[in-house]
Amino acid sequence: MFKEIIKRRIKKEKFNPGMLGFFINYNFLIRRSIYAVIKSHATKLNGSLLDFGCGTKPYRDLFVNANEYIGVDYKIEGREQIIDEIDRFYDGKVIPFENERFDSILSTEVLEHVFNIDELLQEFNRVLKDKGKAIITTPFSWEEHEMPYDFARYTTPALQFLYQKHGFRIIENFKTGNYIEVIFQFQLNYLKNILPGSKNVRQVFLIPFIFFFNSFGLLFSLILPVNKNAYFNNVFVLEKSSDRGA
């Protein structure tokens, strides 16, 4: 029982960091911003919801208007710990559901891991009902991760072109984070990557640096002019359009 409580708290602080995460989560700056924007738009998705690239389904509780929540992900060696959360597996070509199966799609931090992005977006269009909504987030300023399955970074205009090309109307799009937060986050990433030892040992050594960089990243974002030429993530709210030229 106690072990399960700890696991739930760690999962919460990883994706939705609060006060504890401010002191222990070295991804605090990027995670807090992406969680906030997903939460603020979660009510736009309803009905049967496909979470593509679901992982551990960290955002499931936000989607109160969804009456069905189905997670699909790749089956990758070394990620067996999340298999229990995955309802169906993606083979890299076809999402294993019939046409127009879902009212909504959520896909967070996935497209950078997809080499055949045109085929995947066509699949999103196929399994989504007409006028169905989607929330898709992708990193812009971030280090290589989950190697060797990290293939791309996309600018805002590139994503606008790709989504419209594949039959989606852009309702809204946002950039999370800003130049200042990116600078402080990457300094912390650098320290994390050069520290020796096991993951747990690094975590202990990082705690004072996590507090320092999180504090000054937030402080300088408040008192200095904000610039979003560098930022963490693109977040798009989309609608499937019957007009492919939309």
Features:
246 residues, globular, Rossmann fold, 7-stranded mixed β-sheet, alpha/beta
Provide structural commentary.
With 246 residues, the protein is an alpha/beta fold. The protein has a single domain, classed as Rossmann fold (3-Layer(aba) Sandwich). Helix content is 39%, strand content 21%. It has helices at residues 2-15, 19-24, 28-41, 117-127, 156-165, 179-194, 199-223; strands at 47-52, 66-73, 88-89, 102-108, 128-139, 168-176, 233-240. The chain has a seven-stranded mixed β-sheet with strand order 3-2-1-4-5-7-6, sandwiched between helices. Helix 6 (179-194) packs antiparallel against helix 7. The longest helix is centred in the last third of the chain and has 25 residues, at 199-223. The radius of gyration is 18 Å and the shape is globular.
DSSP strand (E) fraction? 15-25%
Low-confidence stretches: none
- Note the total helix count: 7
The count of β-strands is: 7
Q: Please estimate the helix content.
A: 25-40%
What gross morphology would you assign?
globular
Number of spatially distinct domains: 1
> What is the H/E string?
HHHEEEEHEHEHHE
What is the CA-CA span between the terminal residues? 52 Å
- Strand line-up in the sheet with most strands: 3-2-1-4-5-7-6
Mean pLDDT, to the nearest integer, reads 92
Radius of gyration: 18 Å
The CATH fourth-level homologous superfamily: Vaccinia Virus protein VP39
Q: What can be said about the biggest beta sheet?
A: 7 strands, mixed
Any idea of the CATH class? Alpha Beta
- What structural class do helix, strand and pairing data support? alpha/beta
CATH fold field value: Rossmann fold
CATH architecture label name: 3-Layer(aba) Sandwich
